[in-house]
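Saturday, quiet lab. Running sequence design on the structure tokens for the scaffold JK sent over.
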């Protein structure tokens, strides 16, 4: 289905949406003077404000810290990837032919990016109320359902360690793969004792995976 028909967009500024789905590699290949990165920057802020307002009104008794943690779950990369796939935005992406061998991690990152760049384009073209209604229709249902896209296991482990006066640390024990697509293997140590091992496409991801193992062993509540 046509992008504009699918989302009820009436516009005379289609180049703005072309820009929202243009990866830098495609821009270079076709000698274009734009890509989606500036719109992604704008869309990130727009999404954050809309979600923040909704959470502020939905949870009047939550403090700043709890609201911040809650918001991060609905604007994190995992959430953006889910939104983008559910809406089929990846089907509109323009990527250079030579980029067809992108790693899975790189593709997922781009998929998250274009959700934000699409919001940025709609904001400039259709205005605040249109974008707010769009987010309300497609995103707020996940908040109402308490969907968890990303549980911050590292923060939970830090809180546990602080409360119990235990030293919580992480150590990379292995890494493998080509330079642009490595996998890291990390262990979590609690007072020097190994409590879990995790893998990830970057160090933070591996640490979160290791912390998750420790969380499950210790039966600690997260989020």
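Result came back. Writing it out in full:
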């Amino acid at each position: 289905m046509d992008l504009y028909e699918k989302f009820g967009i009436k516009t005379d500024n289609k180049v703005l949406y072309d820009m929202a789905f243009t990866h830098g590699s495609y821009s270079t290949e076709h000698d274009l003077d734009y890509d989606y990165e500036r719109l992604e920057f704008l869309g990130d802020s727009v999404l954050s404000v809309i979600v923040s307002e909704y959470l502020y009104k939905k949870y009047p008794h939550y403090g700043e810290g709890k609201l911040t943690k809650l918001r991060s779950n609905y604007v994190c990369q995992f959430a953006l990837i889910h939104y983008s796939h559910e809406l089929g935005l990846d089907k509109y992406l323009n990527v250079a032919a030579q980029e067809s061998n992108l790693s899975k991690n790189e593709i997922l990152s781009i998929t998250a990016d274009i959700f934000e760049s699409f919001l940025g384009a709609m904001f400039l073209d259709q205005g605040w109320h249109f974008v707010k209604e769009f987010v309300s229709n497609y995103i707020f249902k996940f908040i109402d359902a308490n969907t968890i896209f990303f549980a911050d296991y590292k923060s939970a482990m830090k809180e546990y360690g602080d409360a119990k006066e235990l030293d919580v640390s992480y150590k990379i024990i292995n890494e493998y793969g080509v330079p642009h697509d490595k996998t890291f293997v990390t262990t979590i140590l609690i007072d020097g004792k190994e409590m879990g091992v995790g893998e990830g496409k970057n160090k933070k991801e591996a640490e979160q995976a290791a912390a998750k193992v420790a969380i499950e062993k210790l039966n600690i509540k997260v989020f």
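Notes for JK: The mean pLDDT is 91. The longest helix spans residues 104-126. Ask whether to fix the surface positions before the next round.
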